[in-house]
Amino acid sequence: MLSVDEARARILSHARLTDAEQVPLGQAFRRIPGLASVLAQVDVPPFANSSMDGFALRTADAPAELPLAGEVAAGATAPMPLQSGSAVPIMTGAPLPPGADAVVPLEEAEMVGEDRVRLPMTEVGANVRARGHDTQQGDQVELAADPLSPATIAVLASLGIGEVTVRRRPLVAIFSTGNELVAPGESLGAGQIHDANTVSLAAAVLEAGAEPVVLPRVRDEPAAIDAALREGSASADLLVVSGGVSVGRHDHVRAGIERLGELAFWRIAVQPGKPLAFGSIADRPVIGLPGNPVSALVTFELFVRVLLRGMLGLTGDGRVHLPARLDTTVRKDRERRAYLRVVVRSDRDGWLASPAGGQGSAQLRSLAAANALLVVPEGEPAGEAGARYDAVLLRGVS
Ligand code: AMP
Ligand code: MG
Q: pLDDT, tens digit, for every residue of 214-260?
């Protein structure tokens, strides 16, 4: 049995970076930038403008009661120069008229009749956003190697960039195996269960920033499995198969990978999820995940997600890790590293982890309720109440 770390390293060695492609900014949310930075071609803002609705003035003229002349609104193309000894009503975002050096907000001004205003003493530059206040032409604007956020998309838009270079989303073919499986929404016959993995793995693929290609369920028959393995590996950057990788008489996926390509390894010292087959068919990586639905999602998290991130040029698991105290002793297999489904919350002594429910590999509801996986190392027979372990956050902590 390989350790989790060895298995991860071996899987990651198959991460081939996807090509870069251009997408319009409107489609760039959560895409992974293909460049480390972009060169600013313009100043942002491109001209000095008012940050408030108020009155533009020459600071040398205040404090004073000044006559008003004209008006400058946002979008004004060529505001008249400000005559000394006067003030001009100006709106947020409007260009500062030549000659003006500050803006007094409406709230700090006092109208005197219709066309005069009393303005207080004001500092040069007050309420004015200088040209290039956010970004200057020639700046290298860094793009974190992270999914593009609304804020980064706004930065690019403000620079006038309409399209951004991103990594192509890896295509992930998915199929589930098992004679017992029936599509959710259909009624069950004797001995049948609903297929949880096809849809859960497709969702996990999306969460990892890749694109699922869902193939039909396959019966536990070698010929059918071989055909699906061939089709899946030919049609995607990665093939993920659920079920059929254990030692049962009807587990044909591992043998299928051996028949059609190469099997690199098939057991990992992890709980849940020991049977996981990794190999390649026609030079494309193939991962056979255990069919138990919790094992399938946890091993996806540990092994498929990091591979997809590697294909996108990202390192690590992209999760927040924090040390959390387990509040209850939870027994585990001594040989394997356990990933306990827990709810992490903060208390007076830091972070506290409580089991989110039953830890069986078919007990899906505890995984849905968990906000973290708590890592209890191999070599230990249990996660001990009061001991601290690494918690891998799957989502926010409330
Ligand atoms: P397997 O890995 O094929 O031996 O399956 C292990 C367990 O997971 C069995 O109880 C299967 O019925 C169950 N299982 C396999 N595939 C799925 C699936 N797609 N959805 C829900 N349960 C599954
Ligand atoms: Mg099966």
A: 999 999 999 999 999 999 999 999 999 999 998 889 899 999 999 99
Which residue ranges make up each domain of the chain? 4-16+169-311, 20-44+133-167, 49-129, 321-393
Q: Is the peptide bond before 184 cis (omega within 30 degrees of 0)?
A: no
Supply the CATH classification number for the domain 49-129.
2.170.190.11
Class of domain 20-44+133-167: alpha beta
Q: Minimum-distance ligand to the CA of 241?
A: 1
More confident position, 145 or 165: 165
Average pLDDT value over all residues in the chain: 97
CA angle 365, 368, 371 (to 5 degrees): 130
The closest-lying atom of ligand 1 relative to the alpha carbon of residue 196 is 20
Element (H or E) spanning 272, and its range? none
Mutate to test the pocket of ligand 1, among 174, 179, 181, 299 (most ligand atoms within 8 A of CB): 181
Structural fold of domain 321-393: Beta-clip (2.40.340)
Sequence-ordered strand ranges (E) for 68-112: 88-90, 102-105, 110-112
Cβ(69)–Cβ(117) under 8 Å? Answer: no
Q: Which of 277, 273, 209 is nearest to 29 (CA)?
A: 209
Please, where are the H alpha helices in 115-181? Answer: 150-158
- Closest Cα to atom 17 of ligand 1: 291
Q: Return the SS3 of 43.
A: coil
pLDDT at 374 over 90: yes
- Tell me if 278 sits within 8 A of 264, measured CB to CB: yes
